[in-house]
Design brief:
Strand content of chain C: under 5%
Radius of gyration of chain B: 26 Å
Order of helices and strands of chain B: HHHHHEEHHHHHEHHH
Largest sheet of chain B: 3 strands, mixed
Shape of chain C: flat
Largest interface: B-C, 80 and 81 residues
Distance between the termini of chain C: 69 Å
Oligomer: heterotrimer
Radius of gyration of chain C: 24 Å
Shape of chain B: elongated
Chains: A mainly alpha, B mainly alpha, C mainly alpha
Mean pLDDT of chain B: 89
Number of helices of chain C: 6
Number of domains of chain C: 1
Mean pLDDT of chain C: 80
Structural class of chain C: mainly alpha
Order of helices and strands of chain C: HHHHHH
Low-confidence stretches of chain C: 1-14, 138-154
C-alpha cells in the first residue's frame, strides 16, 4: 500500500493531485503535527484541551458568583487583589456579578459542552469508529478548530476590556443586549460576544458538515448504518442539529448587531432610557427570543446527545452486555433530534407568547418524555444483571443516567405552561437545566475521557483519583442543585444579586452558604481531575494492549498510538454490530470478526 | 433518477465502503452547507414575516419599488425588479451550461459560460447598487412630527406609511421649513431654480403646492428598511462571493487545473452555490416585491 | 486502499444524459421559469390595480398572493431539481435534503402566528400602538380613494 495514499482517506483518486502537496510524506514538523494538524485525533485533543481551559475559567466564574450568593454581606479582600475595580473592597460589584453569570453560561454551554464535548469526541471517534483514515476533509476540520480558537480569543479578549464582557445573560435578550446605555456589559463587550459567537457558528458548521459527510460517505466495508456504534449515531444527529440550527442564531445575532450599530429596529420599540425617548419603533423583543431559542433548544440536545451516545457505548462495554434495544435507542435519538426543533417556545411561555401557541408547545414538549424514557429504560436494562466493571468511566456513565432521570423529571414540571408561570426564572429552572443538561453532559464527557484516554494518549488516567473525582462530583452535584429546587418552589428568583431584602428568602441563607461551600469543593476536585489529566498524559501507566477494555468497536483495532491514517495496513472490514458482548460464552466479539457458522442470532 | 435506479437494486448502497448517495464528499458537504444557509436566509425572511404580521400597516411594495433607471418619475411598479430577476435566471442557465461543459471536459465551453455567469452576477450587483442608491437618496414628502420632511428609505425611517388626510397635510405644510417647501416645488416644476424658490416667501411657496395631488404619507414601519437592506444586502453578499468563486473557477479553468485533475467537480460545486443564490432570490423576490 | 473505491466505476459523477437531450431540458426549464415569472409579475400587477380600485376585496388579494407563493415554490422546485440536478440523485439523497426542509413548516407557522398574536395583543392593550399605526378609516372616502392615484407621480 502506498504511503502517500493511505493517509488521506477523504480524497477520491480524482483529488490525488491536490492532496499530494499536503500529505506526501510522514515527516512532519512540530507545527504541522501538533499545531496546524490535520489529523482528526490531534484536532480532537486540541478541542479537548481548549475545552478544559474554558471549563476552568467558566467553573471559576461560578465559584465567584456563588461566593456572592452564599455570602452576600461578606467581603473577600483577595477578590480586589485579583479583579481590581470589579470587586472594590472585596465585594463583587453588580456589573461584575452579571458579567460572571453571563460568561459562565456562554462559556459552559458553547465553549465547553458544545466545542469541548462534541468537538472532541466527534473528531476523535468518528473516523476511528466508522473505519476511516481521517475526516472527509481534514483541512476543513483543521479550520473548524482554528475558527473555534479565534472565537475563544475574541471571547477572552472581551473579559479584559474596560467595560467588561457581555452581561445580559447567556441568552443576550434585547433590549438589554441591544442598547449600550443599558449596562456596562452591553457596550463593546456585547459586540465582541456577537463576533465570537459568529466565529463559533462558522467553526461548528465546518465541523458539522465534516462529521455528516464522514459518517455517510466514509464508513468502511460492512459498516452499514445499523452496525454503527450508538456514539456515532448520537454524534451524527448532533451534527445535523448544529448544521440546521446554528445558522438561525447567526441570523438573529446579525440583526442584533444591526440594532446595536446601525440604528435599525428589529427588536426595539417604545423604549425610554432615563429621560431619553429612543427613536426605535416597531421591533419585537419576542422575535429575538424566538430566533435565539430556535437554536437554543436544539443546542441543549447538541450538548446532551454526544453524552448519551458515549454513555450507551460505555455502559454496554463495561456491563459486558449488548446494549438493550439498539434500534429503540436509535429511534429515540432520531425522535429527540426531530422534537428538538419543534419545542423552542417552551422557553418563552411567560414572554407574551400567544397562550394558544404555548399550549401546542406544551404538547410537543411533553412528547420528549417518550424517547427520553425509552433511553433511560434501555440504559437500566443494559445494566440489569450485567457483569459490571466499575471503572471510573462506568461510574460516570451511571451517574449520567441518574442525573438525566432526576433532571428530566423536573422538566415535566417546567414543560407545562401553567406551572411554568410560577416556576419560570426561579432557582428551580437553574436546578433543572444544570442537572439534566449541564452536569449530566459533563458526566458524559468525563466518562468519555476516562474511557478513551488510553486511545488518545496511550496511557491510563489514574483510577484512584478517578474514583475520588467521581464520588465527590456526584454527591457534590446533588448537594448543589437539589436544594435549588426548594428555593425555586418558594419563588426565589435566579440571576438576582442579593435577595436578602426579601424576608421570605432569609430561611435559605444557610442553604445558600452550604451550596457555595460544596461548589468550591467540587471545583477543587475538578482541578484535581485536570491535574490527573495532564499528569497522566506524560506519566500515566502505559497501555500495553491494543484493546484494554475488551471492546468491540474499531478504534481498538488500531495500534496503541495510531499515526495519521489510523491503521497501518488495510482498514479492517466489519462483519457485525458493535455490541456482541457475552455472546455464545464469549466475553466479547470484535466487529471485525466474521460471523461464525454456528453462531446464535442476536 | 431513472438513470441511477438501474444500478440501485444490485448495489448495497448503505453497506459501507462506498458513498450511499454515489456522491463524492465535497458535493455532499456543499449540499448540506446550502441546507444550512437556507436556514440562515429562512430565519431572515421569517423574521421579516413575523414583524410584518405584528404591524397594523405595511407599505405596498408597488408604491416603493416603482422606479426604473432613466425613467425619471414614471410609475413602473415591478419593472426593474423583473429585469433583475431575469438577469439571475439567465445567469443560472449559463451556469448550468458551464457545469454541463465541465461534464464533457470541454474547457473552452466552461470558460465561456462561466464568464457569462460572472457578467450576469456583476450586472445583478449593479442593478442592486442602483436600487439601493435610488431608495436611500430618494426624497419623499413625509409627515413627521407635524411637519413635512423630505426623506429617503433608510434603516431608521420609512416614508411609505398610510396616506395622510389632505387637510392634515396642508396644516403640516405650514409648519414645514421654507427649504423643504422650495424643494417640493422644485421637484414638480423645474422651470424655477432652487435659488429663486428659496427667495420666495412661505405663502408664495405654499400657493404653488397642490397638497391634494401630492398624496403625502405618514411614516411607515421602520423595520421595512432594515429588513430590505439587511436581506437584499445579505443576498447581494452571496452574489458577490459567488462572483468571486466563479472568478477563481475561471482562472483555474483557464490554467487547465481541472484538465490536469481529470474532472470538473469544482465547477459543479460552484454551480450548486450559484443556483442557490438564484433560489434565494426567488424567495426574496416573493417576500419583498410580490406580496 | 479501500477508501479509494469511493472513486470506483460505479461512482457516476456524470449524469447519463446526452448533450442534445440535456440542452433541451435546460431550454424547457428556462422557458418554464420565465413563464412562471411573467405570470407572477402579471398577478403582482393585478394586485396593484386591485389596491387602486374602489373597494379592494381583501380575500381576493389574499388568494392571489397565495397563488404567487405556490408559483414561487414551483420555481424553486425546478431550480433545485433541474439546475441543481437534485432530481438526478439517488432517492435517499433527495430525502436527506427534502425532509429537513419540512422543519420550515412549523418554523414559519409558529413565528408568523406569534407575530400576528403580538399585533392583536397590542391592539387590545396598547391604545397608543393602535392609534399610531392603524391606517385611518374615518376618512375612508378621501383617504382610501386618493391612495389609488397617488403613486403615478412619485
Amino acid at each position: 500500500m502506498s504511503e502517500s495514499i493511505h493517509i488521506h482517506p477523504g480524497s477520491t483518486a480524482h483529488d490525488a493531485v491536490h492532496d499530494d502537496h499536503h500529505h506526501g510524506h510522514h515527516e512532519q514538523s512540530f507545527i504541522s503535527k501538533y499545531i496546524f494538524s490535520q489529523d482528526h485525533k490531534t484536532i480532537g485533543k486540541q478541542f479537548l484541551i481548549t475545552g478544559i481551559i474554558w471549563a476552568i475559567i467558566g467553573g471559576l466564574f461560578s465559584v465567584l458568583f456563588r461566593l456572592q450568593l452564599g455570602y452576600p454581606d461578606q467581603s473577600f479582600p483577595i477578590l480586589e487583589t485579583f479583579f481590581g475595580h470589579w470587586a472594590e473592597g472585596g465585594t463583587i460589584k453588580p456589573e461584575f456579578y452579571y458579567a460572571l453569570v453571563t460568561m459562565h453560561g456562554t462559556v459552559l454551554v458553547f465553549f465547553v459542552l458544545t466545542a469541548g464535548l462534541s468537538g472532541t469526541f466527534a473528531n476523535l471517534l468518528i473516523p476511528l469508529q466508522v473505519g476511516a483514515r481521517d475526516m472527509a476533509s481534514p483541512f476543513m476540520n483543521m479550520l473548524s478548530y482554528w475558527f473555534f480558537f479565534m472565537a475563544s480569543i475574541v471571547m477572552i479578549a472581551s473579559l479584559f476590556i474596560h467595560t467588561g464582557p457581555a452581561s445580559g445573560g447567556w441568552t443576550v435578550y434585547p433590549p438589554l443586549s441591544a442598547l449600550g446605555q443599558a449596562s456596562e456589559g452591553s457596550k463593546l463587550g456585547m459586540d465582541l460576544w456577537i463576533v465570537a459567537m459568529a466565529l463559533f457558528v462558522v467553526s461548528s458548521l465546518l465541523g458539522g458538515l465534516n462529521y455528516i459527510a464522514t459518517i455517510l460517505n466514509m464508513r468502511t466495508k460492512g459498516m452499514s448504518m445499523t452496525r454503527l456504534p450508538l456514539t456515532i449515531w448520537a454524534l451524527f444527529f448532533t451534527a445535523v442539529l448544529g448544521v440546521l440550527s446554528f445558522p438561525v442564531l447567526f441570523s438573529g445575532l446579525l440583526l442584533l448587531l444591526f440594532d446595536r450599530n446601525l440604528g435599525t429596529s428589529f427588536y426595539l420599540s417604545d423604549i425610554v432610557v432615563g429621560t431619553d425617548i429612543l427613536p426605535n419603533e416597531g421591533g419585537s423583543a419576542i422575535l429575538f427570543q424566538h430566533l435565539f431559542w430556535f437554536l437554543g433548544h436544539p443546542e441543549v440536545y447538541i450538548i446532551l446527545l454526544p453524552a448519551m451516545g458515549m454513555v450507551s457505548e460505555i455502559l454496554s462495554v463495561n456491563a459486558r452486555k449488548p446494549i438493550f434495544g439498539y434500534m429503540a435507542m436509535l429511534g429515540s435519538l432520531f425522535a429527540i433530534a426531530i422534537l428538538a426543533f419543534l419545542v423552542w417556545a417552551h422557553h418563552m411561555f411567560v414572554t407574551g407568547l400567544n397562550p394558544f401557541l404555548g399550549s401546542v408547545f406544551v404538547l410537543l414538549t411533553l412528547l420528549i418524555a417518550v424517547p427520553s424514557a425509552i433511553k433511560v429504560f434501555n440504559w437500566l436494562t443494559t445494566l440489569w444483571r450485567g457483569n459490571i466493571r466499575l471503572f471510573p468511566s462506568t461510574l460516570f456513565a451511571i451517574g449520567f443516567v441518574s442525573l438525566f432521570i432526576s433532571g428530566g423529571l423536573t422538566g415535566i414540571f417546567l414543560g407545562n405552561s401553567t406551572i411554568d408561570i410560577h416556576l419560570h426564572d426561579t432557582m428551580f429552572v437553574v436546578a433543572h437545566f444544570h442537572i439534566v443538561m449541564g452536569v449530566a453532559s459533563m458526566f458524559g464527557m468525563f466518562a468519555g475521557v476516562y474511557h478513551w484516554f488510553p486511545k488518545m494518549f496511550g496511557r491510563y488516567l489514574n483510577s484512584t483519583l478517578g474514583y475520588i473525582h467521581f464520588w465527590v462530583t456526584m454527591i457534590g452535584s446533588y448537594l448543589i442543585f437539589w436544594p435549588m429546587h426548594y428555593e425555586g418552589l418558594a419563588g426565589m428568583p435566579r440571576r438576582y444579586l442579593d435577595k436578602s431584602i426579601w424576608k421570605s428568602f432569609n430561611q435559605f441563607g444557610d442553604l445558600d452558604k452550604m451550596i457555595t461551600v460544596v461548589s468550591i469543593i467540587v471545583f477543587a476536585v475538578q482541578l484535581m481531575f485536570v491535574f490527573n489529566f495532564f499528569y497522566s498524559i506524560f506519566k500515566g501507566r502505559k497501555v500495553t494492549t491494543t484493546n484494554p477494555w475488551g471492546a468491540n468497536t474499531l478504534e481498538w483495532t488500531t495500534p496503541i498510538n495510531p499515526g495519521h491514517g489510523n491503521w497501518t495496513g488495510e482498514i479492517p472490514e466489519v462483519h457485525r454490530w458493535a455490541y456482541d458482548y457475552g455472546k455464545d460464552g464469549r466475553e466479547f466479539i470484535p466487529q471485525t470478526e466474521p460471523v461464525g457458522a454456528n453462531e446464535s442470532k442476536h | 433518477m431513472a438513470t441511477t435506479t438501474a444500478t440501485t437494486h444490485q448495489t448495497k448502497w448503505w453497506s459501507g465502503g462506498k458513498s450511499p448517495f454515489n456522491l463524492e464528499y465535497g458535493k455532499l458537504m456543499m449540499w448540506y452547507f446550502l441546507m444550512s444557509d437556507a436556514f440562515t436566509f429562512g430565519a431572515f425572511l421569517i423574521s421579516y414575516g413575523t414583524i410584518r404580521f405584528s404591524q397594523n400597516f405595511w407599505p405596498d411594495p408597488n408604491a416603493v419599488f416603482n422606479a426604473f433607471p432613466g425613467a425619471g418619475h414614471a410609475n413602473l411598479p415591478l419593472a426593474f425588479v423583473s429585469v433583475m430577476t431575469f438577469i439571475l435566471i439567465i445567469s443560472s442557465v449559463t451556469m448550468v451550461l458551464a457545469v454541463h461543459a465541465g461534464h464533457n471536459g470541454d474547457r473552452k465551453g466552461v470558460i465561456k459560460w462561466i464568464a457569462w455567469t460572472i457578467v450576469g452576477g456583476l450586472a445583478f450587483l449593479g442593478c442592486q447598487a442602483w436600487e439601493w442608491h435610488h431608495l436611500i437618496t430618494g426624497e419623499h414628502a413625509t409627515l413627521i412630527d407635524g411637519q413635512i420632511q423630505l426623506v429617503g428609505q433608510t434603516t431608521t425611517v420609512n416614508p411609505w406609511g398610510p396616506l395622510v388626510d389632505p387637510a392634515v397635510a396642508t396644516e403640516a405644510m405650514r409648519n414645514s421649513s421654507t427649504n423643504t417647501l422650495a424643494r417640493i416645488v422644485h421637484e414638480h416644476d423645474h422651470t424655477k431654480s432652487m435659488k429663486d424658490l428659496m427667495g420666495m416667501s412661505k405663502d408664495q411657496l405654499l400657493g404653488m403646492i397642490n397638497v391634494a395631488d401630492m398624496h403625502i404619507r405618514a411614516k411607515g414601519p421602520v423595520a421595512f428598511g432594515g429588513y430590505f437592506y439587511g436581506i437584499t444586502g445579505f443576498h447581494g453578499f452571496h452574489v458577490f462571493s459567488g462572483v468571486i468563486i466563479n472568478l477563481v473557477m475561471l482562472v483555474m479553468a483557464q490554467k487547465g487545473v481541472f484538465d490536469r485533475k481529470g474532472h470538473y467537480l469544482m465547477i459543479e460545486k460552484a454551480g450548486l452555490y450559484w443556483h442557490f443564490v438564484d433560489l434565494v432570490w426567488v424567495f426574496v423576490f416573493l417576500c419583498f416585491y410580490l406580496i | 486502499m479501500d477508501q479509494h473505491k469511493l472513486a470506483s466505476p460505479e461512482m457516476t459523477f456524470q449524469h447519463h444524459t446526452d448533450d442534445a437531450e440535456f440542452k433541451k431540458r435546460v431550454k424547457k426549464t428556462t422557458i418554464l421559469l420565465s413563464v412562471i415569472t411573467v405570470i407572477e409579475l402579471a398577478i403582482g400587477l393585478i394586485i396593484y390595480t386591485m389596491h387602486k380600485g374602489e373597494s379592494p376585496s381583501e380575500f381576493l388579494i389574499l388568494v392571489f398572493k397565495g397563488v404567487v407563493c405556490i408559483l414561487t415554490l414551483a420555481k424553486a422546485y425546478y431550480i433545485v431539481s433541474v439546475f441543481m440536478h437534485l432530481g438526478d440523485e439517488i432517492r435517499n439523497m433527495i430525502m436527506t435534503i427534502v425532509v429537513p426542509l419540512l422543519l420550515f413548516i412549523w418554523f414559519i407557522a409558529a413565528f408568523i402566528l406569534d407575530g400576528n398574536s403580538y399585533k392583536n395583543l397590542r391592539n387590545e392593550f396598547d391604545p397608543y400602538f393602535k392609534e399610531s399605526t392603524m391606517p385611518k378609516k374615518h376618512h375612508a372616502n378621501e383617504a382610501e380613494k386618493v391612495p389609488a392615484h397617488k403613486s403615478e407621480k412619485e
